Amino acid sequence: MLDKPLTPAGERILAVASELFYARGIRAVGVDLIAEEAGTTKKTLYDRFGSKDGLVQRYLTRRYALWCDHVTEFVDALEPGDARILGVYDALDVWMRDNHRGCGFVNAFAEFGGTDSPVLAIIESEKAWTRSLFARLASEAGYPDAEQLGTRLSVLHEGAVVMGTAGARDDAIVVARGIASDLLAALAGARQ
């Protein structure tokens, strides 16, 4: 059901649900409100998504795709090498301008962690994708042990999101980018 094309009503429901889930929290938003805001009925919502859980999965899957597309487009426009690695932080900075509640996946994990919800696999996949992006970019730039470097860079990335939102540090992404730049400079002599 996650890859099935949506009808116009399904797209409206998903758009409304995405805004509400991100702004208020997934469990705080009921299907009645979603249907009302989307100008549809609960029956239409259930017909398109099967359940609220199905809608939540579609919301996170769509958010994941939007994030991947945003970062990939941003980074691909840069020169290969360190610029692309550091460009992930710049892409994050742009993304966060419209996402003031932090990472939608971390927020969802706060609600579903410790359960057997299928959304946990989507959350884990998004985190793995970002880490693997850093690892791939590090490998392309010639850094040894790119997998380990990718993990280190993604931890900085995740920390910047948390400090920028929950920590109320407006400079968190700039600080993380600076630390990443320092790390790359320290490793420059070991490049292949």
From TrEMBL:
<protein>
    <submittedName>
        <fullName>Helix-turn-helix domain-containing protein</fullName>
    </submittedName>
</protein>
<feature type="DNA-binding region" description="H-T-H motif">
    <location>
        <begin position="30"/>
        <end position="49"/>
    </location>
</feature>
<keyword id="KW-0238">DNA-binding</keyword>
<dbReference type="Pfam" id="PF00440">
    <property type="entry name" value="TetR_N"/>
</dbReference>
<dbReference type="InterPro" id="IPR009057">
    <property type="entry name" value="Homeodomain-like_sf"/>
</dbReference>
<dbReference type="InterPro" id="IPR001647">
    <property type="entry name" value="HTH_TetR"/>
</dbReference>
<dbReference type="InterPro" id="IPR036271">
    <property type="entry name" value="Tet_transcr_reg_TetR-rel_C_sf"/>
</dbReference>
<dbReference type="InterPro" id="IPR050109">
    <property type="entry name" value="HTH-type_TetR-like_transc_reg"/>
</dbReference>
<feature type="domain" description="HTH tetR-type">
    <location>
        <begin position="7"/>
        <end position="67"/>
    </location>
</feature>
